[in-house]
Amino acid sequence: MPEEVKQIEWQHVDKLKYYTYGSVFFVGVNTILYPADVIKTRLQLQRTNALYKGTLDAVFKTFRSEGLIGFYKGFLVSQMSVLTGHFYVTSYEVSRSQMSFFGDGTRGFVAGGVAALMEQFLANPIEVISQKLMIQGQGENNTKLKGALHISADVFKDYGVGGFYRGFVLSLMTGALWSAVWWGSYGVYIDIIGDYAPHGTSHLLIQSVAGGLSGLNAAVIGNPFDIVKTRLQLKAGLTGWDSTQSYNHY
Predict the structure, then answer these.
(1) Domain shared by 15 and 60, yes or no
(2) Are both 206 and 106 inside the same structural domain?
């Protein structure tokens, strides 16, 4: 007998608990995954093997030359994404709740795209600054690093408000595509796995497997766009940093 997995609707969520526990959860997950994001950003910006020959090489060189702190450059700025994350989920759930006449897959796809579009207006400036912090002092010891306020002032001085929105259109495309694919495929996977799972299978297990498969789909489809987006956002270099040279080599 198929295992029917019901998705929790927004009106059934305790909003106080969600925003309280969700914030703690988001920060915890970001703390664990942030080093991977730093390495990913450095590798995406690198156009040849000028500094890193691969993922493990980047990890070893970062630790050897910058220590553990090298994996957490820009971490505090990036935690502002907790706010954009709540904005994203709220936008998604509200949009999804207005489309009850669609199936779960279609609702997730459309609502995910809408939520990503709305979130990106807040997220893009955070990404630009945090990514500039991530790539400072690569492969160097005892480098005097600039803080977030200094970098923000440099970006505004050199490029105005537009400097915080470099790659914005591609960010919208990337975020909307990733979100739409993730949520759309999640609804489909829930139904498929539920049909084949033995009766009594944990719903949490089914949802976890569906979430993992959905994330894999979104990553494969969205990664090429993410690489181009990162390079566009970081093409505006830091003051005192040769952006043209760095963009050509990384």
Answers:
(1) yes
(2) no
Cα–Cα dist 144/137, whole Å: 8
Question: pLDDT (tens digit, 9 = 90+) per residue, 65-84?
Answer: 888 988 999 999 988 888 88
Contacts of 173 (CB under 8 A, 6+ apart): 225
Asked if 228 and 171 sit in the same domain, the reply is yes
User: How many other C-beta atoms lie within 10 A of the C-beta of residue 87?
Assistant: 17
User: Where residue 56 sits, what CATH number does that domain have?
Assistant: 1.50.40.10
Which tens digit of pLDDT belongs to each residue from 116-145?
778 888 888 888 999 889 988 776 655 677
Helix (H, G, I), strand (E, B) or coil at 138: coil
Question: Which residue, of 157, 183, 217, is where some domain finishes?
Answer: 157
Residues in the chain: 250
Dihedral angle, C-alpha 11, 107, 208, 41, nearest 10 °:
-110
Residues 176 and 235 in one domain: yes
For residue 246, pLDDT beyond 50: no
Q: Which three-class secondary structure state does DSSP give residue 155?
A: helix
Burial of residue 185, with CB atoms counted within 10 A of its CB: 0-12 exposed, 13-18 middle, 19 or more buried: buried
C-beta of residue 29 within 8 angstroms of C-beta of residue 215: no
Residue 4 lies in a domain: no
* Own/partner pairs, 206-213, CB within 8 angstroms, 24+ separation: 206/3, 206/5, 207/5, 210/186, 211/186, 213/185, 213/189
* Structure tokens, 10: 């927004």
From the number of C-beta atoms within 10 Å of its C-beta (0-12, 13-18, 19+), residue 69 rates as exposed
What are the structure tokens assigned to 107, written together? 């609702």
